[in-house]
Amino acid sequence: MSDAPHNLEPEVTPTTADAERGHRLVGRLVGTGIVIGAIGLAWIVYSNLVRHPRTDDAYVRANTIGIAPHVSGPIISLPIVDNQAVEEGQVLFVVDPRPYEAALESARAEMLLTDLEIEGLEGAVSASAAELAEREADAAYAIQYLERVRPLLAKEFVTANQVFEAESRATASKAAVARARFELEQARKNLGEFDGANARRAAAAARLYDAQLNVDYCTVRAPFDGYVTNLNIAVGEYANEGQQVFALVDDRNWYVMANFREVFLEEIRPGMRAEVYLMSYPGRAFQAEVQGIGWALWQENGRSVRGLPDVEPNLNWVRLAQRFPVRVTLEPPQGDYPYRMGQTAVVTIKGFESGPNP
């Protein structure tokens, strides 16, 4: 055996040293690339968030109206159920029309009587006009006779008594004309003719129209396409005039009220495209358009109390950005994906399709 000591450390060759240095260099480059990529990705995400604001504080909305009858009475027909879709003009419920039908028949009879009364008054006007014409003719003859006999008194062809009688007849005939003219005016006023229309007939026609309206109001129809909601009545319920019976959701216009922080409002303009995701339909995007941005928010601090501003004496050092509602109009609903009020939404503002509107 040889007495020479054994060298336990591996011999490092130039090739091995170069490989290690290469590995360290690649590691440094990869690490640097990861850091730069993370910074770049963060910048891209931040820039995209600023240019395309996004919020999950958003909910689907629609306009609702309260359905109330114009007339009072018990409900005798209710052909709908709660949550039912209805079309414009569809019957929602019917109020007992019998009292209003009786009032309508009374108004029709009153209209007929009014026509007969007008015919009688028109006859009275004609008679008064004829009476006035006769009195005017008598007055003209009396005046003409007086003018003939008055010169004859000086020649003693007539007596003073005859002249006096002629003067009396002329004066009386003038008074009769005045009385006949007054009676004609009264007859015309009683007739009620004004500006080519008869006031009596117009009043009776208005009462008839009102009675017909009340009969028509007994049948309550849907004013637009929508959905019945909060229907808690049955046939026999007494409906009061002007009091809501149930609500109707307007299916014509759906929108999302998205609350954006005020720091993003500079990037939001009416007419911009928006993309909406609903929690009810995961993975499906709905197209929308920004309709407008809210102009006011209720603030507890600074409210008026008895005409004076109520301002708190302290001020928080941390100022939180307010959220303003942005109304985003949704595309028309599709059969398989109906909208419902209150659905949770996520809204992203995409901007204008081809630059901002002029």
Describe this structure in words.
This protein is of the alpha+beta class. The protein folds into 3 domains: about 50-60 and about 250-350, Elongation Factor Tu (Ef-tu), domain 3; about 70-95 and about 220-245, RNA polymerase II/Efflux pump adaptor protein, barrel-sandwich hybrid domain (OB fold (Dihydrolipoamide Acetyltransferase, E2P), Beta Barrel), CATH 2.40.50; about 95-215. The chain is about 40% helix and about 25% strand. The chain is built from 4 helices and 16 strands. It has helices spanning about 15-50, 100-150, 160-190, 200-215; strands spanning about 55-65, 75, 85, 90-95, 195, 195-200, 220, 225-230, 240, 245-260, 275-280, 285-295, 305, 310, 325-330, 345-350. Strands 1-10-15-12-11-16 form a 6-stranded antiparallel barrel. Strand 11 and strand 12 form a beta hairpin. The chain is elongated and about 175 Å long. The N and C termini lie far apart (about 100 Å).
Uncertain stretches: none
Q: How many strands?
A: 16
Distance between the termini: 99 Å
Q: How is the largest sheet built, in terms of strand order?
A: 1-10-15-12-11-16
Helix content: 25-40%
Main beta sheet strand tally, sense and closure: 6 strands, antiparallel, barrel
Strand content is 25-35%
Q: Based on CA inertia axes, which overall geometry fits? A: elongated
Radius of gyration: 47 Å
**What is the count of structural domains?**
3
Element-level helix/strand string: HEEEEHHEEHEEEEEEEEEE
What's the helix count?
Answer: 4
| Mean residue pLDDT | 86
Structural class: alpha+beta
